[in-house]
Amino acid sequence: MPSVTPDDAPPLADLMPWSVAPPRLGRGWPTAPDAVSLKARWDALVKAEGPDREILFAPTRSRTLTSAVAQLPGRSTGTGRLARESGPCPEPVRVLAAPFDEQWLIPDHRLIDAARPELWRVADERQVFVVEQTVTPDSASPLITASSVLPLAPPHGPRIGRVHPLFRRPGAAEPNLAPGLVEYLGERLDTGPVDAVDVLAWILVAARPGSNSIGVPLPTDPGIWSRGVELGRRALWLMRRDGDRPKLPGGRRPYVRAPLPSRPVEVRYDRDEETLVVDEGRISPVPSEAWDFHVGGVRVLEEWFARRTETAEPGTLEAIRPTTWPQTWTSELLELITVLALLAELRPRQEEVTAGDPITTAELRRAGVLPVPDSARRPASVLDHREEGPEGQFTLL
After folding, report:
1. Whose CB has fewer CB within 10 Å in the chain, the N or C terminal residue?
2. 31-32 and 101-105 strand pairing
3. Taking the complete model, does pTM exceed 0.90, yes or no?
4. Secondary structure, 3-state, 305-358
């Protein structure tokens, strides 16, 4: 059988049919690398009155101080007009502010232009959010990434594509896969039942860019499938960063060799010394593969630093931030270096993963797996409790 090109392979959009555009904030201040700053920003907002509060809020056509919106699913925030708000800051939650950059968000619907409530309804500790990334000429950049926390549309830099939750319901219920796909793969590969996480693991390593979409060749050889799934599960564990912390071998673990300054300004990389130079601070060893790790054409480590050191306009809420570099950021940086280095180590093996004589889209159509029904492209009904609407009213959905 001739090999299948990415354009002939089943599209990701068919294999994981329910997808949503990423949440878009419309303003930068409700997110920050630290939760303390967010609470201080909220306090500054609610203490301001009249025009001062409006200026600080940064209204858009979608959100103003008088916007009436429902509560975010799973959150107990206020629903009254923000112009009258005087209560404490909602407890910040972890989100993915940009690829591989976990930050904090004030989870208040009144602050978010396009929150995508359907994603919040299925966000829990077992969910995996699969994110399409911008395709660039740099083939080493991952086409898709995965996260255990809700991804946001970055305020600047490369845009991200659609978000595919792995599960359509909370509690890892009802995989977001083409109906009948796991059964078909189990029979075709003669492996018995196929797990939804295994399918995602294969997608992470086998996805290829097509002219109009991301294609995912599917194998017919159980040995190829097993090797791809093993590799993909390793990549998934590194991307989610849950459970045990990833570590490089003893002699390759990055350490702070010279303390980072209290207010870093510049970061650069010394290839000869394998050292990340942060003003007079030094972190080493940092593998060049970690420094060169790009997503969407952007160097991950460089952008991570930029988001923590970029200047903010005085008098804005974004200007409320730590006055010195927190120790927690250094710990997060060391872990990020480790994750990127370990992911980079997987690339040569990932590039060797091919589907062999792959399953064609035509075969999936003959098996009834494709085309997927329209219902599979829409969110499932997951309401098991009332959601508060604007001004304390309850939403009926």
Report:
1. N
2. antiparallel
3. yes
4. HHHHHCCCCCCCHHHCCCCCCCHHHHHHHHHHHHHHHHHHHHHHHHHCCCCCCC
Q: Which token pair is 93?
A: 């939650």
Place of tokens 């098991």: 384
